[in-house]
Structures are given as structure tokens and as C-alpha cells.
Amino acid sequence: MSRILPRGRHLFVGLALIGVAVLLTATHFPASASANEAPSPPTIPETVYRVDTADKVAFITIDDGIFTPENALAYVTRHQIPITAFLSAWTIKDSADYFTAMTRWGSVQAHSATHASFDLPATDLEHEICYVQRRYSKKYGWHPWMLRTPYGVASDSRKVRAVAASCGVQQIVMWDTVVDHGRVSFRGKKMQPGAIVLLHFSRDLKKDIHLAVKKIRAAGLVPANLADYLPDAMPPTIPQQLPGLQGPPFPGR
């Protein structure tokens, strides 16, 4: 014989069952974000000074773009060396073809518009960072996703990182090795796997690239394309660069 519950208890049991059903539904099917809810702002990982990899590789990066020595381009082309160029917009002028050829086995990335220091209050960060992103994409077909701040300053500034993230920068990249006019210096005691080597587009560029390759090989490493280890998470729909080719062994001398 079934027991008939008082009316109040019927109501309590019914509400309890509805609550259980709602809880189970929420557990298995989380509610989607409201259409009016603002998306989370993009973020940039910690500044990269050396790539975290066990691969026996190092990365040659060249800044600015003031000088465009043809002998350096010929050397890179002959040995098919992966170069990452962090260019300042004001230096490019009529040299876009040179930089595209120089980075055939690497990529063009962003440095700044005018090379103004990012830690100065008067610096227009939107112009220095976002203008470069727009101009490179529209005029040259380059689509940078890495940024190197001029002079290596303010890379951890919250303001710099917020502006950079707002216009497509995904990584801020510094260095741990410097080759400058025939001199080599390290952040640590020696070059390690994942080393990021800083050079500049100077009149001595061929000599410096040659020295960088020599030091990389002496450390038991080979030059590699930085974009393969810090890839673009949002690649454009058009080619960013000419197809890379498997080149001959890098020069040891």
C-alpha cells in the first residue's frame, strides 16, 4: 500500500529533484559565456631569452636594418642560413626585397617603428608596435608575431605587453648571446642549446654571421629557424615567406 505524502512534502521533494537535475546538467554541460561578456584580453608568455629545448640548435637574430651589405646576403643565400630579422620600420625604405631574401629560411619580425625606447613616458607605444604590425602586413606581406623591444628594455612592462598583445604580438624575444663587430659575449659561461644570438645589420654583418655560425658549431649546435620553435599560433592565410629548402652543411670555417 503506497503512502500518500502531505501536500507540503510533495512540493519539497519536487523542488529537490529539480535541483538535482539542474546540478547534473550544469556539471556535464557547462554554461557557455554570455554573448555580452567581454573576451579575456590576449596575454604574452614570459619574455624569451633562450629557447627551452634539448635540441642541439641555436638561433641567429639580426636587429634594426640600417645597413644592407650584399656580401652578407650572398653568404646567407649560399649556405641557406636561417635568419630572424627584427626590423625597425624606418630603416626598411626601399630594401624590402633584401630583407625578404635574407630571411628566406627564417622570418621577419618586429622591432619598432622609430627605435624609440619603450621605457620613456613620451613614447607612443601604439605607433611603435601596432603601426609596424599593420605596415609590414599591408605593404610587405610580412606578418610578425614576435617583438624585440629596442635596447632590450621594458620587455616585462605591463603596458608594453598589453599594447603588443592587442595588435597580434605573441612572443617578446630577447637574447643570451651577442656577436658584435667580431666580439662574442654570453649571458652565461657558454653557448647552450636554444641560444638566441643577437647581431645587427652593420657593415660587418658578413663577418659577424660567419663568426656566429662558427661559435654555434663549436658548441656542438646548428643554426635553426626560430619560427619553428616559437611558431605563429594564428598564421595568416597567405604565405609569410618563400618556402624553406634543405641546405648544404653550414660552414665550419
Which series of helices and strands comes N to C?
A: HEHEHHEHEHEEEEHEH
- The best one-word shape is globular
Low-confidence spans: 1-5, 9-35, 237-253
Nearest-integer average pLDDT: 84
Number of strands: 9
Overall SS class: alpha/beta
Radius of gyration: 26 Å
Strand content: 15-25%
Let me know the largest β-sheet.
7 strands, mixed
* Count of helix runs: 8
The first-to-last residue Cα distance is 99 Å
What helical percentage do the residues reach? 25-40%
Fill in the keyword field for this structure:
disordered N terminus; 253 residues; 8 helices; disordered C terminus; two-stranded parallel sheet; seven-stranded mixed β-sheet
Can you give a write-up of this model?
It contains eight helices and nine strands. With 253 residues, it is an alpha/beta fold. The longest helix has 22 residues, at 7-28. Mean pLDDT is 84; it is low at 1-5, 9-35 and 237-253.
Topology overview:
Elements: H1 7-28, E1 57-64, H2 70-79, E2 83-88, H3 89-92, H4 96-102, E3 107-112, H5 125-140, E4 146-147, H6 158-166, E5 171-172, E6 177-180, E7 183-186, E8 195-200, H7 205-218, E9 222-223, H8 226-229
Parallel strand pairs: 1-2, 1-8, 1-9, 2-3, 4-5, 6-8
Antiparallel strand pairs: 6-7
Helix pairs in contact: 2-7, 5-6
In short:
This protein is of the alpha/beta class. The chain has helices at residues 7-28, 70-79, 89-92, 96-102, 125-140, 158-166, 205-218, 226-229; strands at residues 57-64, 83-88, 107-112, 146-147, 171-172, 177-180, 183-186, 195-200, 222-223.
